[in-house]
Amino acid sequence: MDTPMRTSDGTSDSISFAIVGSGGAGALTAGAILLEAAGKAGWYGIMNRSVGPQIRGGEAAALVRLSTRPVDCMMESFNFLIAIDWRNADRFAAEMPLAPDGLAIGDPAGGDVPALVVDSGATVAQTAMKELAGSIAGGRGNMIAAGIAAGLAGLPVDDVMSVVAAKLKNKGDDAVEAGRACVSVGMREAQELGRSYPLEQPKTADTGRWLITGNEAVGLGAVRGGIRFAAAYPITPATEVLEWLAPALNKVGGALLQAEDELASINMAIGASFGGRASITATSGPGLALMVESIGLAVASEVPVVIVDVMRGGPSTGIPTKSEQSDLNIAVYGCHGDAPHIVVAPLSVADCVFSAQWTVYLAEAMQTPAILLSDQSIGQARALIDRPADIAFVAKREVLEAAQGQTYNRYALTESGVSQMAIPGTAGGQYTADGLTHTVKGIPSSKGSDHQNQLDKRRDKIEKFDYGNHWAEMESGGGSDGNEQFTILTWGSLAGPAREAVQTLAEEGITVKLVAMRLISPFLKDKLLAALEGSQRILVVEQTHSGQFHEYLRAKCDLPGDVRHFHRPGPRAIGPAEICSQIQDWKAS
Predict the structure, then answer these.
(1) Alpha-carbon distance 472 to 486, whole Å?
(2) Residue 497: in which H helix or E strand, if any?
(3) What is the pLDDT of residues 111-126, one digit of tens each?
(4) Which CATH number fits domain 14-193: 3.40.920.10, 3.40.50.150, 3.20.20.70, 3.40.50.1000?
(5) Looking at domain 472-588, which of 3.40.50.300, 3.40.50.920, 3.40.630.30, 3.50.30.80 is its CATH number?
(6) How is 352-407 classified by DSSP, letter by letter?
(7) pLDDT for res 541
């Protein structure tokens, strides 16, 4: 299933590379050159990275998929594995299985080939990358590896050389010339290997395609949505959100402040929002755990704030550099008491722009905390995408202009559940904002009636809000059987692999519907059941060990038809072939 699809002229529409090496060997740089050169040539692609948890050293791999069509995930196995060296590769070789007809290329001076590679059945070839690089003044083995990969993919030489020059220009002309010379040698070596999967030539030239990571796309969506303040405490794999926001906010009159820890970050963001600035912070699971008390404060005081959680493998420190969807429970249920809030999950790198902008809009419109639940697999993935459309969602908070002699009730009970929020300094708009149960004016109260009224208010504003059709994406593969008896129900980053599985199954004549949930909380039961109407067999897919998404669904509604559940933890991402196998086996049973 992961062998590249051949066109009539023998070219491919999709191929995958794993470029590996020890920390500092430059594997990620080689992968970035390959992806960017493909973009210049008019192709699409995506690059994930797999690194160890060590601060320095350890293992590193660039996982690159190139395609003639937009792609949101990696292929299940790799056509080519290029090892700059084999040191520490045994730690993560299982994450990059080679296709049976694949090719592993290693340096004989780079250590022993891992048993997993030898046992894969793939062909193993030797190329003296270190020696070849040493024959060029200033040469590096990763540039040889980049040239080999580019040659195997059939990328245009001019595009590759242009990217190399751009990547190395800050190091001077000598470095650029050395890099180009190494890439030329690598491309010649690729020809000697006698194995290639040249991509089909693009039908149209690049017309403004973007090269962006999910974390950068989240930052862009947040700024488009009106975010003007960010409080930052770095944590893998969310740090790039904050790094992107730092200069971007300055350009639009905003600011980013690095705090001393996650507790300070969330409280700074809440404080800035209370003062009238749409605000955001970004973290991962351990940081979110520290923030939940303050998220409850924002719920009770009805202060909008956006919290980006780029999930990683847990619990505790877990595997900070690998992806998982296991923060679902804490994102939905983590606050103490009844604390309704928003949870949104982007469905792809490109969707991070829309989902982040929409999340800001929801938080501001409903004056509530909103968690954007991304993960490492899309947050740190770099993808070639078509330019996202500009959308109209801009933060719009219902603000008190002036009390004008009238009594101002900050927490007035309204039909929508949303009441006017006074910015500090508004004439007649003084009120108390804290975490205590309060009256409509904001005065602390222990009366049962006040408690009930404010709980109802905070619930109603979220449940009554019109989320439109953005709560999920749905599509059908259009198989020849004409009967959508199968449905894949998933969420977040697994939408990409599921979508590709639907397309593959359609080519086999199996019609499968996809329902990928973007809005996780509140749970729109009626909309989900309407989307699943007529589904006879539903496959729930998620990347967790305990099946958190499936349990969440079961707690909220009775799914129709026969339901099966496919889940497993990271670090290896669930791919399209695994999902296809689940449907194929089910159909055959």
Answers:
(1) 18
(2) helix 495-507
(3) 888 888 888 888 999 9
(4) 3.40.920.10
(5) 3.40.50.920
(6) HHHHHHHHHHHHHHHTSEEEEEEEHHHHS-EEEEPPPPP--------B----TTSP
(7) 98
